[in-house]
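User: Fold this; tokens only.

Assistant: Input:
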Amino acid sequence: MALPHPPPSVSLFARRVTDGLDPKYLLFGVFPLVSASGGQAVGVGWGLLAAAVFVIPPSLVVHAGVRGGRWSDRHLSVRTQRLPVAVGLSLYVTAVVVLL
């Protein structure tokens, strides 16, 4: 017996909550906030730079892969698609940390 689908309003609400609490959006607030906790205004700039460098390019890579048909969706639901993305983005983040 198949389970009934949730009402569209619940699905829409759940999708908005899930999208709104996406880590990439939260990082734009967390990086500058943590950087500002040092008490200097220059920390906020570094936090914004870190947020932009660590969030925007990986998001664009995943988005381009989904649009190009390389990956199933932005959540990388197919497990075999996760490893190359994880390795590539880990190398990218490592390179950025070394540069910063």
